Input
Amino acid sequence: MRWLVVTDDFPPLDGGVATWTEAVASALHREGHVVTVLARSRAGLGRGLPYRVIGVPGPSFARRGALWTAIAAAPMLPRVDRVLATTWPVATVLAPLAARVGVPLDVVAHGSDVTRPARDPAAFARTFRSATRVFAVSGYLRDRLAARGVHADVLAPPVDVGGPIERVRTGDAWVMVGRATSLKGGDRFVRLVRAARARGTVFGDGPLRGQWEALATSIGADVRFRGNVSRSALAAELPSFDVAFLLPRTEADGAGAEGFGLALVEAAAAGVATVGCRTGGVPEAVGAGLLLDDPDDASASASIVRAWWSPERGEGCRAWARDHAGTARVARRLVDSRPHL
Output
């Protein structure tokens, strides 16, 4: 089968959508499909991948990326069997074109594209009306779409689980993976590390990294900020940690909730215990891990994590990931799913 994957976010860009898209495109390729990816043009795009990745140029891509993507995709549509749009905004122009040609279009909901009000409600409705199938990366997002009259099926996390790694675990090595933005909760992680007297590491960069570093210094939290690292480097380092955290918040009106939390599943797959909070789709990503009811109460939360953690927690989270995640599982679901009636 010939797949055309269209996306805004793709490595070397970091973030959940980019990670998800590469994992799924690579899984489809391993399953024997012909895969072509159209993604916003960036230096290093698609480097080292065994399938074709085409950079889509264009001014003001954040506002007009759907148009540039549709222009690049239009001549390819008659030569592919399916189109996969990894977020709906990138498909707003492409969706009616695909419908006109008769090529099935799958659209995937990831997070802020659904958890915030659509900037263009007409484009939102047009895209999902034209889609052959709609998927979501969490039950939370499925329910948000249902409230807008859109039926979606939930896809498993595209994360593969390796074998156990033997190491001495003390419970003191804590990690957070995520962009340094206002909703990701990096400040919560820093305060929690200080309250627990643990050793923290943050992977990821963004506009608030400096604020988080200043907070760590001011309160005496032992936190290293590593910035962006390659996917391979992160995968190699994750097993060295004991606990992985994702403690996001929403905007004042409840918008912008975390759609899932793929970084937690990646940590679980590496045998790291996972801790999250009851925001958006995070409880689903935590799996066999721990949910904190009040992550802003650093002292109480630190005590809860310390009392809960044991060396066996990471293997429990790994077992959950083995039962619920997997790149081949996602690829086969995409191939086998039937259009909505």
